[in-house]
Amino acid sequence: MIAYTPCTTESLRARLANVPAVTERLGTDSSVWDVREVGDGNLNLVFIVQSLQGALVVKQALPYVRLVGDSWPLPLKRSVFEYNALIRHALRDPGRVPEIYHFDEVQALVVMRYLSPHVILRKSIVTGVQHPNLAADMGLFLARTLFRGSNLSLPAPQAKADLALFSDNVALADITENLVFSDPYFDAAMNRHTPGLDPWITKLRTDRDMKVAAQAMKHAFVSKSETLVHGDLHSGSIMVTAEDTQVIDPEFAIYGPFGFDIGMLLANFLLGYFAQSGHEATPGDRAAYRSWLLSVTRDTWGVFVAEFSRLWRTERTGILYQRALFEDQGDPLASEQALQDVLRGIWVDAMGFCGVEMHRRVLGLAHVEDLESITDDSRRLIAERRALALGRHVTINRAIITMEGLIALAERIEEEDLA
Amino acid sequence: MIAYTPCTTESLRARLANVPAVTERLGTDSSVWDVREVGDGNLNLVFIVQSLQGALVVKQALPYVRLVGDSWPLPLKRSVFEYNALIRHALRDPGRVPEIYHFDEVQALVVMRYLSPHVILRKSIVTGVQHPNLAADMGLFLARTLFRGSNLSLPAPQAKADLALFSDNVALADITENLVFSDPYFDAAMNRHTPGLDPWITKLRTDRDMKVAAQAMKHAFVSKSETLVHGDLHSGSIMVTAEDTQVIDPEFAIYGPFGFDIGMLLANFLLGYFAQSGHEATPGDRAAYRSWLLSVTRDTWGVFVAEFSRLWRTERTGILYQRALFEDQGDPLASEQALQDVLRGIWVDAMGFCGVEMHRRVLGLAHVEDLESITDDSRRLIAERRALALGRHVTINRAIITMEGLIALAERIEEEDLA
């Protein structure tokens, strides 16, 4: 066994030449393969390996955060969690995640489908490209992965074994715990923000109710082990074509609340929404795209609810809300009542997470290209103020707000500059 | 290494003769030790081993449920969870659990302090004996073990490692999941109940809101991994003298909600309360004892709140509600606001669990001696009706009820027979 070594394009070529799952796709003459390192994420090496016969992607973890360097070590084992999440996602929502061809745990290396001509959804949102299937695909993905990873569906021993497996993903959970829930709310070392935003930041960081609410959401993230969450489901973790949607990069996977992935994803749609004005060449030329992003926000949740409800009625084989107590007693309405109760809890959590995610993308370490690519500081500042304001409102009012209220408030904040 | 074998008094004597932790307490001449099997619980072998020099208790798990026989297998590994919970409890609330002298994982055998002249608290409640320190001791135990086992206190990697460790306690969690939360609410095979109670049982089992609420509590039990809970904290798991209180038998330990142990314990006080009338030789001769049980209910919660609040202010070193966001920003009231919010959540959960525990002790497999020892069926039935009624009220109204309301309602149900 060869000890872990970060790959170069040449060492990767040599390593893959002996892997049948690779040679059956690219051919056995590895000398003709084109190998390129293309990683632009924060954490890992990413290679595309191509021949005339085919292509694939290789993702290799580095023992530190790529963006920062070896001063920030990060366990290689995250590739184990990514691999385990990917194979579960593939089972639970077939076709929505890249197929895995090969996994090498020692090298922390996953070989998988090369997605082409897919682009990162966030790039589409920055350039203003619509994807008609996005909301449906993501609503289904959320419902299926979250329902089928939970005690609503899995046998209890399997759910508890997976809880134990993913609870070891300590280092990546730690990143979320700090960067999403805590750092944005005080003057933490790695935070950064747009010049001129200080007065609004001071207001938020002295907002007692907001800080308590953000910490309540951290409490929920840390303690509610409801299902296997992707853990980093923003628009940079989704790849799209005109027709297709693929969900990638679940290395932050952990058992967490049903509402976490949902809230984070909706927040990223809303960040995209507020960013649009910064990308307009003439005022209003992104108005239709803005509306589309709100429709995606609404429809993602709507599809989630419909599919989650369908699975509740047809696949509820776990230990929670057993049919023996409801349908089998001739009281299907009890099951519907419980479903509404569960959906309500998911929504409230999702809204709490949504607001916190909007804040950290403006105030914390990891910003979003939607806003970062607005070159005019003053236009970016306006968009960011709006995101801060909506984020505060939805987290604080998570037990009150409706989807209609969320959409209407986003529009009012945008149009009347209520921030 | 000798394979696991259930002990007899003689094989145990031989086995312990070579254990220094035993011989230093009992002397090296094992032939003079008095060894007796005294287990009267549902699951295990329990031995008292005594010499002129000292005494100790040996608890050995059997590979099945003792009460039922080998038709109901149960993993020996539960002794690992019991051992691990006991050493954590000893650290977190020193002096409140029996000291462990020796643990043999292969033999599933724990050697520990012989508690004498302690009696099981439930026996005291049946006979009407007061224990002045009970509420204070249990309030402190609950606050210290629950706070110090959580992400309010522990370093996150340690909390996550313990979550993983105890998540393997699948078989005993399964018992709770079924016997506490599900079986009581339908005609499950192992249920039993007092003759004549059927009309009230039918009413409860067709009570849609109650069944949905009970399943919501099961959802919370299964998914809220907030802290290490004892998992079976009823009055049979507490041993008392006039002065002392000891908490035993944490083999059901698992990561669960803050409110679980609290709700279960308060429910057992309230079951004791309603049972008193069945033990009166003349009407009213247990009135003072009834009042005392209500004061224990009130004070256990009161002491819990005071101690949990003290720990919150002085030992909040975990990743939740960090001082960096509150006190260190000059806003200690934010920390107090968050504390109230957390205590509120604990109370609501505790009330939900309290009602369900009251129900299952009347309707399920495992009843309580408080009620079982009432020889007159009609008097037991009255007590049980009252327990069912209060249980229903507190679970359904868990988000509304106060401690004052709980006490007042218990008294009204008892005095005016509102059940």
CATH superfamily of the largest domain in chain A: Aminoglycoside phosphotransferase (APH), C-terminal lobe
Mind summarizing the main beta sheet of chain A?
5 strands, antiparallel
Shape of chain A: globular
Beta strand count of chain A: 12
Uncertain segments of chain A are none
Order of helices and strands of chain A: HHEEEEEHEEEHHHHHHEEEEHHHHHH
N→C terminal distance of chain A: 58 Å
Helix fraction of chain A, binned, reads 40-55%
- Proper CATH architecture of the largest domain in chain A: Alpha-Beta Complex
Category by helix and strand content of chain A? alpha+beta
CATH overall fold name of the largest domain in chain A: Aminoglycoside 3'-phosphotransferase, Chain: A, domain 2
Most extensive interface: pair and counts?
Answer: A-B, 49 and 49 residues
Strand order across the largest sheet of chain A: 1-2-3-7-6
What is the percentage of strand-forming residues of chain A?
Answer: 5-15%
Count up the domains of chain A: 2
The oligomeric state is homodimer
Question: What does the model show?
Answer:
Chains A, B: GO terms for molecular function: S-methyl-5-thioribose kinase activity. Chains A, B: This is S-methyl-5-thioribose kinase. Chains A, B: It is an enzyme of class 2 (transferase). The first copy, chain A, has helices spanning 9-16, 20-26, 78-92, 121-127, 134-148, 156-167, 170-180, 198-205, 208-223, 259-275, 287-314, 332-363, 369-372, 377-396, 403-416, and strands at 34-37, 44-50, 55-61, 64-65, 69-73, 100-104, 109-113, 119-120, 227-229, 238-240, 245-247, 254-256. The first copy, chain A, has two domains: 9-113, Phosphorylase Kinase, domain 1, CATH 3.30.200; 119-416, Alpha-Beta Complex (Aminoglycoside 3'-phosphotransferase, Chain: A, domain 2), CATH 3.90.1200. In chain A, strand 6 and strand 7 (109-113) form a beta hairpin. With 419 residues, the first copy, chain A, is α+β, with helices and mostly antiparallel strands.
